[in-house]
Design a protein that fits this description.
Layout lengths: L30 E6 L3 E6 L24 E7 L4 E6 L3 E6 L13 E2 L9 E7 L5 E6 L3 E6 L13 E2 L10 E7 L3 E7 L4 E4 L6 E2 L6 E2 L9 E8 L4
Parallel strand pairs: 9-14
Antiparallel strand pairs: 1-2, 1-3, 2-6, 4-5, 4-7, 5-10, 8-9, 8-11, 9-15, 12-13, 12-16
């Protein structure tokens, strides 16, 4: 099925689109983390979003002179670490308390400093550092890396190499947190979905080039990677 147009459910403005759906259960006890394409991060208390008008409320002030846009949102407990990945293969990990809680009108602070035309393509809020990270690239390659291989740094740095972005791999399209019981969905630009198990991808070091995750059709590229765990029963 094609689904139902979101404009029928939400009063979106011209040029506006949905970035993320978040569960609001216990939101007032947690924080909402927001990240922009240019690496600006913001943390706001969840209680600020418990009561929202049908027309919406301001969550983040964008720096319009830099042509920035909101690309990722997540809920955190206040005691997590944050990993940010960029299109050109850089990544940074820092504790979330390095981003002070701000009001809804604030613009945020620098999460990762970008070089040239690089941009943010992924963010994960980490509560369990025993799991792994999977990085995926446009040409269908990727690799699995231990979270502990990314040392905790300070917010605002350039980060470290996540996966090479050479002619074989292409640019990074996203990352996902995976465990032994996880399942992976790889989605290409034509809407085709392939399901994988993390067992099929061995854990590698940060400098490794990675392996083929999926063979993409000619003219297509990988668009997204999603990890999920099936609930028992």
């Amino acid at each position: 099925a094609k689904g139902r147009a979101v404009i029928n459910l939400l009063p979106l403005q011209p040029g506006e689109h949905v970035v993320k759906l978040l569960c609001t259960r216990d939101l007032e006890k947690n924080y909402v983390i927001m990240l922009t394409k240019n690496g600006i991060i913001k943390r706001t208390e969840g209680s600020d979003f418990v009561k929202i008008r049908s027309t919406g409320i301001r969550a983040l002030t964008l720096r319009e002179d830099e042509k920035d846009e909101l690309v990722f949102c997540a809920v955190s407990t206040g005691n997590c670490s944050i990993i940010i990945a960029t299109e050109h293969g850089q990544g940074i990990r820092f504790k979330e308390d390095e981003v002070r809680a701000m009001g809804r009108q604030a613009a945020g602070v620098i999460g990762i400093r970008l070089k040239g035309k690089d941009s943010v393509v992924g963010m994960e809020v980490i509560s369990d550092s025993t799991k792994d990270l999977l990085f995926a690239t446009a040409h269908g390659y990727g690799k699995r890396v231990k979270i502990t291989d990314f040392r905790v740094a300070h917010r605002g740095g350039l980060g470290v190499r996540t996966i090479p972005t050479d002619a074989r791999n292409g640019l990074v399209i996203g990352l996902a947190v995976v465990a032994e019981e996880s399942h992976l969905l790889l989605i290409d630009t034509n809407g085709k979905i392939i399901r994988l198990s993390p067992h099929e991808i061995r854990t590698m070091g940060r400098q490794a080039k990675g392996v083929r995750l999926v063979r993409v059709d000619e003219g297509q590229t990988l668009a997204a990677v999603v990890a999920f765990e099936e609930e028992a029963g």
